[in-house]
Amino acid sequence: MAGKRPTPIALLALLALLAAVAGSVAAEPVAIDFRLAAAGKPFDCAAEARPLGRAATPVRLRDARLYLHGFALLKADGSAVPLRLADDDWQAHGVALIDFEDGSGGCTGGSAGVHTRVLGDAPAGDYTGLAFVVGVPLQALDGQGRRVVLNHSNPELAPPPLDSQAMAWNWQAGRKFVKIEVLPEGGVRRAGDTVRVWTLHLGSTGCQGDVLAGSVACRQPNLVTVRLDGFDPARQQVELNLDALVADADLGRDAGGSAGCMSAPDDPECPALFAAFGLAPRPGAAAPVQRVFRGVAR
């Protein structure tokens, strides 16, 4: 006796299942590794002082962490294929925290956990580059399609890695996108005093709105877009190059504001650092090419 024909609903369910199976088979794992470098060599909490900046000031590392999102693999025709990140203690809602410090050496305010690899998957294919964004997006959609507030959310209620108090800020409850702190020999000399730590905290500024309602908007989002053509995750890693970042900065002197740059629009130390990240000097102005991130051999 001939079998019954499947109902339309059953057929749709079967097609959806086959598509899901095919998609899972076609996807392959991708690992993107990161390293921090100074004076042409890997830089960590235990490293000796390295000369950095236009005055070649010897500095040791105190802290280095950054949030990343928007990962995509690039094809030869210029199209981008999103990299779907796995969720764990270092990655959530497509946002990853890279943490170079381990709490040892000069990193006395840090923690033991280190995370320098972003894990995800993408459809199998021929890729010729990598793109990502430095920072935390305003929001994302969860697995059920619901809106989730990310950057301007309460760290005490957020999932890891967005629960990091070390990366929390007090400007409309946003996050530090980049936190780099170094210890210059002799300190940072200012008009009225000398302080121990040179600081770069990159984050959004000019933010207004209702944090609880998730309606915050920022005049200067300060999200850094990175595109690395010719990048091969199997043979290369992404380097955050401190030499390029602080090439035009004097790490032993400060002309005003915070000792370094905390993203204040009127801080005299910020424009050169923003230019290195490829950020426009003001809203509407042309943005330079970023020179902080590059692909290097493993």
From TrEMBL:
InterPro entries assigned to the protein according to its UniProt record, in alphabetical order: MbnP-like, MbnP-like_dom
Signal sequence extent: 1-26
Xref: Pfam families: MbnP (PF20243)
Domain Copper-binding protein MbnP-like: from-to ranges: 28-262
Alphabetical keyword list: Signal
Protein name: Metallo-mystery pair system four-Cys motif protein
Species of origin: Rubrivivax gelatinosus (Rhodocyclus gelatinosus)
